[in-house]
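Troubleshooting: if your tokenizer reports a length mismatch, compare against these two reference records.
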Amino acid sequence: MKTLFTLAAIASALLLTSPAHAQDAAAWPNKPVRIIVPFAAGGSTDIVARKVAQRMGQLTSQPFIVENKPGAGGTLGAAYARAQPADGYSLFLGTVSTQSVAPFLYKTLPYDPLKDFRGLAMIASVPNVVVVNKALKTQDLKELVAAAKNKPGGLTYGSSGLGSSNHLATEALRASLAIPVTHVPYRGSGPALTDTMAGHVDFMLDVAMTSLPYIQRGDLNAVAVTSKQRLQVLPDVPTVAEQGFPEFEALGWFGLFAPAQTSNELAEKIAQLVHQVVLEKEMTAYFEAQGATASGVTLKGFDDIVAADRIHWGKVAQLAQIQPE
């Protein structure tokens, strides 16, 4: 009898809470929404967040406010985001770094990428560009290898931080090229790019979105792209694969997440909005001009991509012989 009573109580609770979830979803958003970005302002993740937030705000007549929480390769921001209420008003702009790569670079994480978040929608995917300080005078990977072997102690490279996707991608490239390098982590791609141009580090792998203007102005030399195909916006820059490493590929992505306890009704409503925004003609054209590809994959489809990427980057970490720190 006690078991039956307990089951009946649970069933009653579910019946009471389900309409509340539906009401919450129907009213969303009726106040400002935060999008937590785990990297510094000015980097690619911040740029994507602000572009999408602006359009979401226009469509809903509510402000979507970007809140930067940089540090530790994005893991500080991710841990902060997971602790927020699951009410749809604190969302997380996650990346391949925070959701798929970090488990292979840190012995302990203050969050579980798969259990603490639910994927809402993938916004866009983008390859990296190998950009080099002009003083190094390298035009391709062959010359980069020669420069690394000729410089005492090897080359230095910047990244968005320990645990970021460009950190792991650069380590994979190092393993492929068999060159000596020293990692210099930053709190985002913006400051890392600035120091690469200034010559404080020799090179870095950066997503095309943020490195493109500097390449086009001649502030940095682009020696390779990490996708299997060349970018339309950088047609003269060969891929890593073309330069003798046919298996090499490193793609990043950006996506919107919510705390795992977010209701299905609310998750579906937010996912539909992001899907609409990302696949608008103007938005897809914007991403294409930045060297990225709009996605719009939502919910379980997005969760499946995150899980599959975690397997992929685990293999990359093993290949590069990276030990978690």
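Reference record two:
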Amino acid sequence: MNAKINKKLFFILLIPLAYLIQFLSSRASGLAEKIYSRGVYRIIARFLNLISGHIPVSIAEILVVLSILFALFYIVKTIIRMIKSSSKAFKILCNALVNILTAVSLLYFGFMLLWGINYQRLPFSQIANYDTSPASTDELLEVCKSLMEHANRLRKHVEEDNNGVMKLSASVNETLKRACLGYEAASKTYPELHHNYGRPKGVILSEVMSYLGIGGVYFPFTGEANVNISMPHTSIPFTACHEMAHQIGFAREDEANFIAYIACKNHPSPDFQYSGILSALINATNTLYRYNRDEYFKLRNSFSEGVIRDLDALNIYWEKYDTPIEDFSSSVNNTYLKANMQQDGVRSYGRMVDLLIAEYRSRK
């Protein structure tokens, strides 16, 4: 019994050890980049892709569902034991809490070793030698106009459904299989994006993800990029590339968004190009709205009818899932980001605009 207790206490100590690793790597981003992100993690990702990359279904989804069922079973079982042995109820409860804490510590430590240190790597702007100095509202407006013109042009080359909303030219499954082509093309300009990718996978319980306000998720324990395939087609290519950015070791949300835009922009398919440009346009114009509403509405009036229909379809879709469940999920995600030393939390998504402006500068 003592040996079991000592073993559990040892595992629980992995929590402060994992946090120490996280803290030290945050103070040495250069080493985290060189040793972990470009070294250790590449080996880990290659190994995980060999296991899960060729399996068509999401192993992550299966594991999550089984874990939830097991957790519910364990809670019910513990409650029943406490009722049957009321004299030992406190001891049973303490033992259950220790077991839960042990499991959490193992998961947290595993997360940190398998992927979490990537949060502390060098900023992508530094890796790409971008100028991210503060931009004026006029410069932001230039970027918005450029993205709008690009989106309007590309919109003419994508297919529409019966409602006049963009639809994929191939099946969702085929679209996900071809997501890697954008990264293959982008890696010629950005060598850091070269990787042996496991293909993104559509989630069977995508409707549940929508209720949680989740478009996609990277699962570090299997190395899988999981995509909510119930979303409007305009979002699927960009979301697949976003999760693939996590897959190659870019953990920060703002950077994953920007890298997804780069991958989509370089993809040979108009579906991906349009999805990436439209997502960048949404991010950029949302920022413009905060700083200059007059210019925002002027620009909005120049959106093509097809682009407007696509944006309306996106808004209508997500409004259906604007529930307390989604709000709770957003709060959990916010806490998760802050726990990984992303102090802006969910707001860090907005910093993608800095990278869009820097990329625009590099092309001038």
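Descriptive notes for reference record two:
- Strands lie at 159-160, 166-167, 201-202, 216-219, 224-227.
- The chain has a mean pLDDT of 89.
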